[in-house]
Design a protein that fits this description.
Layout lengths: L1 E5 L4 E4 L8 E6 L2 E6 L5 E5 L2 H13 L1 H11 L16
Antiparallel strand pairs: 1-2, 2-3, 3-4, 4-5
Length: 89
């Protein structure tokens, strides 16, 4: 399992032996959500608005890193990013 980002009391991780669509998990002490890597929308669960905002900003710039971690942890379910990353300004 790859932990890619940590907040004050939550973390963003990519797990192995997962199902499509390509997604990541955001886990906190009283919440959990699965976020689609392409849309950055929750597929399952929810998270506090402040956490969602921070996660979305980071994930928009790091989709390729998330997909690389997905492919490392899920070699039988390789994924190719469809969404183009925004250039850093």
């Amino acid at each position: 399992m790859g932990k890619l980002l940590r907040g004050a009391n939550w973390c963003l991780e990519v797990r192995g032996k997962e199902h499509f669509p390509c997604h990541f998990h955001v886990i906190g002490p009283d919440f959990a959500a699965q976020i689609d890597v392409e849309t950055l929308l929750p597929m399952v669960g929810a998270m506090p608005h402040a956490v969602e905002k921070e996660v979305k900003v980071w994930a928009e710039k790091n989709r390729s890193a998330i997909v690389a971690e997905w492919n490392k942890n899920n070699p039988d379910r390789l994924y190719t990013l469809k969404h183009q990353e925004k250039d850093d300004e």
